[in-house]
Amino acid sequence: MLPSPSPATRQFLVFVFVGIYALLSLLRLVEGGLIPWGPIVGIGVGITLLAGPVVWVARNRYPEQRRERLALVAFGIAMIVFPLTFGLLLAFGAPPFIPSSDALIVGAYVGLLFAHIAEHTVVPERLRAVN
């Protein structure tokens, strides 16, 4: 039986594999011709400003077991809301400002990457993840 990897190793592996998926999405955008930089940057900034501070405050206020339960609940809600939202947008005609799924993936990855970099450079020690 293999030993369980450390939290830092698990986090690194998640960033690598999601990064590969985001790179494939970016390559599809490049292949398509016009890259929607506006939506990518907007989604990246939005994710950075929303996800980063929420995670840092939750890490400071809630014990680890409760944070895990809240993360599972949030993931479950997201798994219900996102497909339902996209299905309704497709059924009733998506507005032209809704970016493609590839732009969403690349923007979200860039936002999470910037939030991670900010966490390790400017966030106080007590709000950082334990590595």
What does this structure look like?
By secondary structure, the chain is mostly helical. The protein has a domain at 41-122. Helices cover 77% and strands 0% of the residues. It is built from four helices and no strands. The chain has helices spanning 7-32, 37-61, 64-92, 101-121. Helix 1 (7-32) packs antiparallel against helix 4 and helix 2 crosses helix 4 (101-121). The model has no long low-confidence stretch (mean pLDDT 82).
Spell out the blueprint of helices and strands.
Elements: H1 7-32, H2 37-61, H3 64-92, H4 101-121
Give a summary of the structure in a few sentences.
By secondary structure, this protein is mainly α. Helix content is about 75%, strand content about 0%. It has a domain at about 40-120.
N→C terminal distance: 23 Å
Strand content bin: under 5%
Largest sheet: none
Order of helices and strands: HHHH
Mean pLDDT: 82
**Quick one: overall form?**
globular
Oligomerization status of the protein chains: single chain
Radius of gyration: 17 Å
Keywords, separated by commas or semicolons:
mainly alpha, 131 residues
